[in-house]
Amino acid sequence: MKISGRENKSGFKGQKRYKICRISLFILTFIIIFLSALLSVSCGLVYYDIRENESGRKSSEQKSIEPDDAYVSDSPDSSLQAAGEKQQSADYNSNEKPVLIKTSNCAVKEIIDGDTFSIENGKRIRLIGINTPETGMYFYDEAKTVLEMMIGGKELYLEKDISEMDGYGRLLRYAYYGNLFINLEMVLRGFANSFTYPPDVKYQDRLNEAERYARTNRLGLWAISELAGSGIEVVINPDAAGDDTENINGEFVIICNTGSKDINIGGWTLKDSSINIYEFYNYVLKKGERITLFSGKGKDGKGNFYWGSQMPVWNNKHDSLYLRDKDGLLIKYISY
């Protein structure tokens, strides 16, 4: 059939418009995909877990990345230096190759305290191997502020140890911002204590080393009270005879005033490595006097004080004791 020149010309125009539409659609699709990928990279909270299958190898369904094997604790930025804390660089080495997992969340959402924060999917993260002051305790605000400075609104790597979460439903993780090992930095700067809680002890030796450094240099929580040299001596008996749970008052702490002056211990606090804390009321510890703080229940009087705990306070094999004055400054520290 013969096609007229007009019909043929119209057909060519239709084909041309069709090709232009296809090209435009392709370009538009490419732009959408590109912008989505860019948004995912810039906004997605990035973290990793070391996941292994039954054979001990990483799952082939996960994409491996190759970050630096060594995370080095860099010098603090200017905002942290303004806190006036002396610093030391601390190495963190890991032979593990992390698996990068992206979530749909943008970044750290809220700092709860010095060792806990939330991310945008609503989950809370508890930093492993450290412990910071609770609400109302000495250095609570400082620890929370420093953690905010380091990670507030930022993108993190999170590493799992053995346990997935604690009894409060918080995910237990080690956290990294770039080359900064956050758990370690909090201890190194003196804003957290090293806190051993098996089975999650992968980096506990390093955290203990960081605590020794902070303690030696009297950083943060390790600032010394003027009463430290006043003749106050402390003895602890952490292991009660028999079953500790049935003999809670078999645990006790003795505080002696071997100095030359009477001392009012009102507002002093005694704490373990966890969150157990006892505060003394207005009491004058006379020179040469000794008082005993029992872990269990009883009636205070005649130099005897009772914590009132329903469970043992002190771990038998390993724990730490912190005696602080009314301003929160350290008088005595015992680790066993």
Q: What does this entry look like structurally?
A:
With 336 residues, the protein is α+β, with helices and mostly antiparallel strands. It has two domains: 49-221, OB fold (Dihydrolipoamide Acetyltransferase, E2P), CATH 2.40.50; 224-335, Lamin Tail domain (Immunoglobulin-like). Helices cover 22% and strands 25% of the residues. The chain contains five helices and 22 strands. It has helices at residues 5-43, 78-81, 140-151, 182-188, 204-216; strands at 46-49, 70-72, 91-93, 99-102, 108-113, 116-119, 124-127, 130-131, 157-159, 171-177, 180-181, 193-194, 232-237, 252-257, 263-264, 269-271, 277-279, 284-285, 290-294, 304-306, 320-324, 330-335. The strands form seven sheets. Strands 5, 6, 7, 9, 10 and 11 form a six-stranded mixed beta sheet that branches. A four-stranded mixed beta sheet has the order 13-14-19-20, with no helix packed on it. Strands 17-16-21-22 form a four-stranded antiparallel beta sheet, with no helix packed on it. A hairpin with a 2-residue loop joins strand 5 and strand 6. The termini are far apart. 28% of the residues are buried.
